[in-house]
């Protein structure tokens, strides 16, 4: 265990007037779980304060308490030195606390002005005063937002800035951001961090949750580590490195990453040729996509969200019919098979939206074990459901994948986001698949779980698994893939060699900015300046 100098600011040391938030003795229990236990730390005004911890450590619960979505069983909260009772988000907003969620909540068909004003005041008579206020906030904090632009036309980074602006418009002086960089390309991350620095310069306070420890170290002024519901320490970023921070989170030393060798064979397993999908507005969502994945190979697809990744997966998994093209598994054309047939033929699937497509949230974990594998052992015996087999195997997954849960009988909804993801990965890897289609397999999981999911994919690959890996995490793509392609407006660009390509080069190809730096023969038709991710619609 590393020894790290703590920079925990006691109220006396910082001067009470300097503290935006003080949490004392916060405890929150759910059935069978103590999500927060005697949490105590304070946040200085005008700083960026990060909260880190393993999946299920209790970060989201704590932020929900601070935003009035959950109520603590015990403990007290002070905002600007004053005790507050936060029973609802409206109470939090009144206390000057705003929250930007990971899933943006903007209406595509409305302008930024309408979205910002929506809910804050009547839509009637939205006028120049509101427009003027948006311009002022945008200018003051360098948000670069045009009040009259349509949200549908904005890229992911710009949407996030609108969400921040919405919170500022409601008068927030303390902003909570939940994993804000998970969906951003590197250039957008830098822009967001510039915005955060601007906010704190103006005296605002930012609290944010992140699993990306390098980023945390880059932007935070203080970092609070939570382990198993309790505050372990608040550290100064200059006194720790990412590895030490991860060790504080886990409570023990981490193993060193294993070295890897190529396992790619010459046996094609999944072949996709000339795949196109026409959108409703005539623009292709997928445009003549072809690739082959061999046994033992990981093909990584990088891209800004909304450029065809979701459609590509849907077509391969038989959820959507392509306008033209073929999908061939080993020697069989599966282009017109349905999801169930495709899964039974040996294609495992980790969906992008785990809550909508990967889990039945209100069902217990062991029933979720059966989901998508209703015809396979150990879930069935003959024509009947084998509940005890499914339960026992769920217990195995919980053990092997370190799913933090009181039992296999609780609902999937009660697991933390990262633990839900571990359950899905465990389920999908249980049937010895030939192909794994994995969309963002480690999104929202902590560094320890990420390392074990990566190890698992490497092992399966060494045994001949073919993997289609779609991810917004460039470190993951570079670390796991044998080949990387970039998807931009439904077209593939590449290949890129993961041993030589940099995150910046991939980021540029993803935004269509600088195909010159890419080792590519198939360039997007139009160039865009770096960091401009605005495309014509299709962003979620
Ligand atoms: N509504 C709920 N009902 C029951 N248990 C819950 C509920 N919300 C959270 N929990 C439990 O509380 C614990 C903390 O969960 P929380 O979501 O706060 O963790 P987290 O640190 O945000 O995790 P992650 O990084 O995976 O998002 C977990 O064990 C989780 O299963």
TrEMBL record:
What's the chief localization of this chain? membrane
GO cellular component, alphabetical, reads:
plasma membrane
**Carries keyword ATP-binding?**
yes
In what ranges is there compositional bias, type Low complexity?
508-526
Q: Segment Disordered: which positions?
A: 508-540
Q: Domain of life, per the record?
A: Bacteria
Query: Which keywords does the record carry?
Result: ATP-binding, Cell membrane, Membrane, Nucleotide-binding, Repeat, Translocase, Transport
Q: ABC transporter domain location, by residue?
A: 21-253, 270-514
The molecular function terms of the Gene Ontology recorded here are:
ATP binding; ATP hydrolysis activity
Q: Where in the cell is it found?
A: Cell membrane
Annotated membrane topology is: Peripheral membrane protein
What name does this protein carry? Nucleoside ABC transporter ATP-binding protein
Organism expressing this protein natively: Pedococcus cremeus
């Amino acid at each position: 265990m590393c020894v790290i100098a703590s920079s925990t600011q006691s109220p006396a040391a910082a001067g009470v007037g300097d503290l935006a938030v003080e949490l004392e003795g916060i405890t929150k229990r759910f059935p069978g779980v103590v999500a927060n236990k005697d949490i105590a730390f304070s946040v200085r005004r005008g700083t960026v304060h990060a909260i880190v911890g393993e999946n299920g450590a209790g970060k989201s619960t704590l932020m929900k308490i601070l935003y009035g979505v959950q109520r603590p069983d015990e403990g007290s909260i002070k905002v600007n030195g004053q005790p507050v009772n936060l029973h609802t988000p409206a109470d939090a907003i009144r206390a000057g606390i705003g929250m930007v969620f990971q899933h943006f909540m903007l209406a595509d068909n409305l302008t930024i002005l309408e979205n910002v004003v929506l809910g804050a005041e009547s839509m009637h008579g939205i006028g120049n005063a509101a427009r003027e206020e948006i311009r002022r906030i945008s200018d003051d904090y360098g948000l670069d937002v045009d009040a009259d632009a349509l949200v549908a036309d904005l890229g992911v980074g710009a949407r996030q800035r609108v969400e921040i602006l919405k919170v500022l418009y409601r008068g927030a002086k303390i902003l909570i951001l939940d994993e804000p960089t998970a969906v951003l390309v590197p250039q957008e991350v830098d822009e967001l961090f510039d915005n955060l620095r601007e906010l704190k310069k103006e005296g605002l306070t930012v609290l944010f949750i992140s699993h990306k420890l390098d980023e945390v170290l880059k932007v935070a002024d203080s970092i609070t580590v939570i382990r198993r519901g309790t505050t372990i320490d608040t550290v100064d970023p200059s006194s720790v490195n990412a590895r030490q921070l991860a060790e504080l989170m886990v409570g023990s030393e981490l193993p060193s990453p294993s070295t890897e060798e190529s396992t790619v064979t010459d046996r094609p397993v999944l072949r996709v040729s000339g795949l196109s999908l026409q959108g409703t507005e005539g623009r292709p969502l997928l445009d003549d996509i072809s690739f082959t994945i061999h046994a033992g190979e990981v093909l990584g697809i990088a891209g800004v969200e909304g450029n065809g990744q979701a459609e590509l997966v849907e077509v391969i998994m038989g959820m959507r019919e392509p306008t033209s093209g073929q999908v061939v598994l080993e020697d069989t054309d599966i282009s017109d098979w349905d999801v169930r047939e495709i899964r039974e033929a040996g294609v495992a699937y980790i969906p992008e939206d785990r809550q909508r497509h990967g889990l039945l949230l209100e069902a217990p974990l062991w029933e979720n074990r059966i989901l998508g594998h209703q015809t396979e052992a150990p879930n069935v015996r003959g024509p009947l459901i084998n509940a005890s087999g499914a339960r026992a195997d769920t217990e195995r997954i919980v053990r092997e994948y370190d799913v933090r849960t009181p039992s296999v009988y609780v609902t999937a909804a009660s697991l933390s986001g990262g633990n839900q993801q571990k359950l899905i990965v465990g389920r999908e890897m249980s049937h010895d698949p030939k192909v794994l289609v994995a969309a963002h397999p480690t999104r929202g999981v902590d560094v320890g779980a990420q390392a074990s999911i990566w190890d698992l994919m490497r092992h399966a690959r060494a045994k001949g698994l073919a993997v289609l890996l779609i991810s917004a995490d460039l470190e993951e793509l570079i670390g796991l893939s044998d080949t990387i392609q970039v998807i931009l407006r439904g077209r593939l660009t590449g290949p890129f060699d993961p041993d030589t390509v940099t995150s910046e080069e991939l980021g540029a190809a993803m935004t269509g900015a600088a195909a010159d730096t890419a080792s590519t023969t198939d360039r997007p038709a139009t160039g865009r300046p770096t960091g401009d991710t605005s495309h014509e619609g299709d962003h979620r």
